[in-house]
Amino acid sequence: MQLTNKRLEWDQFLEIRREILNSWPTGQEVDLEEAIAYQSKIPDNRRFAKKLETAKQEGITLAQPRAGVALVNEHIELLRYLETEGEADLLPTTIDSYTRQNRYNEAQAGIDESRSVGRSMLNGFPAVNHGVVACRQVVESVISPVQVRHGTPDARLLTEISLAGGFTAYEGGGISYNIPYAKDVPLERSIRDWQYADRLVGYYEERGISINREPFGPLTGTLVPPCISHSIAILEALLAAEQGVKSLTLGYGQCGNLTQDVAAIRSLEELADEYLSRFGYQDTVVTTVFHQWMGGFPQDESKAFGVISWGAATAALAKATKVIVKTPHEAMGIPTKEANASGIKATKQILNMLKDQPLMQSQELTEEKELIKAETRAILEKLLEFGEGDIAVGTVRGFQAGVIDVPFAPSRYNAGKLLPARDYYGAVRLLDFGNLPFGEDIKEIHREKIAQRGKTEGREPSFQMVIDDIYAIGKGMLVGKVR
Amino acid sequence: MQLTNKRLEWDQFLEIRREILNSWPTGQEVDLEEAIAYQSKIPDNRRFAKKLETAKQEGITLAQPRAGVALVNEHIELLRYLETEGEADLLPTTIDSYTRQNRYNEAQAGIDESRSVGRSMLNGFPAVNHGVVACRQVVESVISPVQVRHGTPDARLLTEISLAGGFTAYEGGGISYNIPYAKDVPLERSIRDWQYADRLVGYYEERGISINREPFGPLTGTLVPPCISHSIAILEALLAAEQGVKSLTLGYGQCGNLTQDVAAIRSLEELADEYLSRFGYQDTVVTTVFHQWMGGFPQDESKAFGVISWGAATAALAKATKVIVKTPHEAMGIPTKEANASGIKATKQILNMLKDQPLMQSQELTEEKELIKAETRAILEKLLEFGEGDIAVGTVRGFQAGVIDVPFAPSRYNAGKLLPARDYYGAVRLLDFGNLPFGEDIKEIHREKIAQRGKTEGREPSFQMVIDDIYAIGKGMLVGKVR
Amino acid sequence: MVEEKKQLTLVLGVIGADVHAVGNRILEYAFTEAGFKVVNIGVMASQEEFINAAVETNANAILVSSLYGHGEIDCRGLREKAVEAGIGDIKLYVGGNLVVGKQDWQAVEKKFLAMGFDRAYPPGTMPQEAIDDLLMDFGFVQKC
Amino acid sequence: MVEEKKQLTLVLGVIGADVHAVGNRILEYAFTEAGFKVVNIGVMASQEEFINAAVETNANAILVSSLYGHGEIDCRGLREKAVEAGIGDIKLYVGGNLVVGKQDWQAVEKKFLAMGFDRAYPPGTMPQEAIDDLLMDFGFVQKC
């Protein structure tokens, strides 16, 4: 079966579907008509897409934590706590690592051991093992809309169970849940598997049920230049829209420089609208998600509050539709529910205080936006060229050729030739462009900005600079400057 | 003796001095020559003025907490903790409220009771009662420079003891430590008493010992428009410079709107340079201090971290020379040392992360700066006119006439006719101008901006709007909007 | 009912060496708006000033604010002074940041009630709460 | 000296089910820049992959990274596998977040040396340190 960016034929979809639902016993619980009847009873105020759309119209930013534990009752308790004490606007259900690798037997062992030792032995909620009824218990036990967040290259069964289970939003994508999350899953396979997930969402949409879809924005979370994550977000938006997805939330992970971060969020929305409209997807609604700092955190909780708060402030100033919240326990591993709630409360305080600030405007911001747009367009146009107009084909070929390339990704299907580094002001630039299809004008901007930093530090730009930048936040700085 | 902005005659100074040093037994410990010999041995790296000047050159922001307890050893322990665990760049010694009112007998009772109950019964360090030797113990026990912070209308004895005690910076001023801190101290008296304090600092300067002086910027800390605090900061800068003060740190309390706050810090430094140079004080060094939110705080500590962090971010983006740090216990009263250190650590994390951001630039920022400058100049020029060129005389007459007026001040020498309120974007504007000498052009800007807010809330601007704004931050908002 | 409330006279002030004026202004505004007669003696008010103002105006209640942590020292003996002045049964309310440092509120409240206060309020109390309590303590039925 | 260094071949990888790729890339770059021949087997590498790569490339040293806390389980027996494969005297270095939770580094180091590693590095070690150690362990004199 040749990969192409075309809507999956229904027969073909059903054929795959039979196989998928048979791959684990809980697959048998899914009855599509019954699921649609169930979802259609969930009112607008508890639907993810609707709440995001309203926030976008009001120009406010919603706060959403990450959270998931092994057992159903404990997971419900956790979400309720984050909703009431934490004042979360949107809720998550983070899936455990075994489920992400389709290792349901090991997930089951984790569930059993969690029951016997009385604490969660899994780093998330194993939704496939728990099945449809348990998922419905979860979403019914809270007032806010709940999204499934994971990191699964082949998420077809999880998608079936999640949607039948009443979740109204779903993270992931064929590129963003492969390249940073796997070592040797071919892109053709993950894109095709995510076409299935998107087709299912598209079918729900056809039946009048809005399901929000969110490509995973931050990728490897380490010095990813906006043009890279923007390109992938837009590729996945186009792939999803082709399958009938209507509500898209595109993401970006905080780099740390205010101007670049605001420019990134604003340009992401504008670029997405541009490409979706160009390819004829007129009725999709694009919202944005800003991820608080995804790199290493300070061990100290007060300092972690500082990092969290700066992320919240940037999200508010960029007027992102939602912000994904870190916790003061970030450096220590999986947080307690109290620490999780603390992160949300600090974030909400800032979001509320800053909701009245006007949108930033300056010459620098405009220039940064235009640069990001020019870079992203250069990549996307080259991929379209590679795919002879087919963006799915172009994506696979483009990754092979390294014209789209994610820094520090584990996948062998990623060229891994880029070298990002911060400029003097902390914005992420490129020291080595690998095979990115940038013109000399763009390259010259990067070279100049990195040279400016090199000059003030009295050293030639090199990989040592990249290393210093990666270590910087752990040392309380943004730029790994030599002074 | 007629008040005038002229350097105190030395004979006159010495005459007052005898009386002052006799007013409480510890005054006898002060020997000016011995004090100068002591101060001259304090190296540059432990001098406040030097550290501020270096920070200004490097474009970085230093963090300073507030702290003070009744007993010497406990106070030393507190400062050491804030220096090592809290990573404070600059240290304080906050003076208790009885000492601020020259009520040394009551301060003594507080010391005695603190000893017997084993916890501080005073809200600060009673430096006068403890005397010169104890103060030297304090400054010698830490590495960072230490400033005395208080709120004393007549601080002459405290100044003598503080400087002989080895402190290298001193907060206060004849207006900023009277109008917000006293009920019925005449301005003539407090200005004259602070001329004495400034003259003493000036004398140390003549002997080659640099002592930093800081007028108290935030005043009542409640919806004070920048032009009001700027006018008073510049008045006190001129009064201090005339007495020979060379190192001046001018302050401003966070209002909450980013553009207004950055514009305030930048315009404060520019205006001060303008007026100091105009009156011939060429060799003064002006640095700035940004006070994190001085109004009501949320009870919840995580939310308080949000408020603190936003203050830290604004200070860094405004490139203030130092920031005065709040604590997550702010809503509960005087903090534990752990809470105090937490506030500094969150602040420092943000200052370090943001030190590389470029100075903000935008049309809005330029306009806001120009507005603040026009307002401040209008007030200062009217005061000069009232004083027939003498700024001390002009200040007294100006307060009488209400052409300079501090919102919510307790002093009966303050007109108290201003009504500030936030505009739609959270910037502090004026609802009632009292007798401020603003032209119609300035007034129209305020009226328009407040009308814009009133319209979106569907209510006429009124005192209820002011009350809503005062409570807003405690409720997690900046603007007390009715929605 | 508005008529009846107007007959209640409140002495309002900030005790000791405390100069926190903002809350005092808001309380004056809120109590006045609520229909009480407010005698505001302002900031830095001594115990004597509270008692004298209450005697002179024949007040029904004294409302003491303390925001700077010295409330424990400053408020001690106020009930006794009221008794000496012949107004021993006047209602005494107190509120604010009453002690130095973070302490358990129940303990702080107990301390102030033991000192002879009828009600004590923790930091962050909204004026409406005290207004409601006043109406209740003086037997006015609330319309809610 | 640059000539001589080029003869040293290093096998580099992240052991177990660990996908942390950032540090791996940093090390590859730093060791290559320093003049070594680097055979990078990447993330999620098994013990067998390390040994096979070392045998095939006739490597001088194996450098194992582990960032996710399971290093203790994943590294156990690596020296024995090297012996079985006939490269028992190959240098074995290990570094990263080697254990779950915060533990005393001296104890962790001792544990890994006892397992047969020649050197172990704590979290936050800069690549230059390992480069210097390699040069020393293989008898290259350092110029400064």
Strand order, sheet with most strands of chain C: 2-1-3-4-5
CATH architecture of chain C: 3-Layer(aba) Sandwich
- Segments of chain C where pLDDT lies below 50 for 5+ residues? none
What is the overall pLDDT average of chain A?
A: 95
Q: Give a quick account of the main beta sheet of chain C: strands, pairing sense, barrel closure.
A: 5 strands, parallel
Multimerization status:
heterotetramer
Determine the strand fraction of chain A and express it as a percent band: 5-15%
CATH architecture of the largest domain in chain A: Alpha-Beta Barrel
Q: What strand order characterises the main sheet of chain A?
A: 1-8-7-6-5-4-3-2
- Which fold does the CATH topology of the largest domain in chain A refer to? TIM Barrel
Number of helices of chain A: 17
Biggest interface goes to:
A-B, 49 and 50 residues
Helicity level of chain C: 40-55%
Protein described:
- The complex is a heterotetramer, with two copies of chain A (483 residues) and two copies of chain C (144 residues).
- Chain A has helices spanning 10-21, 32-39, 48-58, 72-84, 97-100, 104-117, 127-140, 156-164, 187-206, 226-242, 258-278, 301-318, 337-354, 363-386, 391-401, 440-457, 463-472; strands at residues 62-64, 91-94, 146-149, 169-171, 212-214, 247-253, 285-291, 322-324, 419-422, 428-432.
- In chain A, the strands form two sheets. In chain A, strands 1-8-7-6-5-4-3-2 form an eight-stranded parallel β-sheet. A two-stranded antiparallel ribbon of chain A has the order 9-10.
- The mean pLDDT of chain A is 95.
- The longest helix of chain A has 24 residues, at 363-386.
- In chain A, α7 (127-140) packs parallel to α8 (156-164), α9 (187-206) crosses α10 and α11 crosses α14 (363-386).
- Chain A is globular.
- Helix content of chain A is 50%, strand content 9%.
- Chain A folds into two domains: 10-354, Alpha-Beta Barrel (TIM Barrel); 417-483, Glutamate mutase, C-terminal domain, CATH 3.90.970.10.
- Chain A is built from 17 helices and ten strands.
- With 483 residues, chain A is of the alpha/beta class.
- Chain C has 144 residues and is of the alpha/beta class.
- Chain C has a single domain, classed as Cobalamin-binding domain (Rossmann fold, 3-Layer(aba) Sandwich), CATH 3.40.50.280.
- In chain C, 42% of the residues lie in helices and 22% in strands.
- Chain C contains seven helices and five strands; from the N terminus they run αβαβαβααβαβα.
- The longest helix of chain C is centred in the first third of the chain and has 12 residues, at 22-33.
- Classes of the chains: A alpha/beta (483), C alpha/beta (144).
- Chains in contact: A-B, A-D, B-C.
- Chains A and B meet through α12 and α13 of A and α12 and α13 of B.
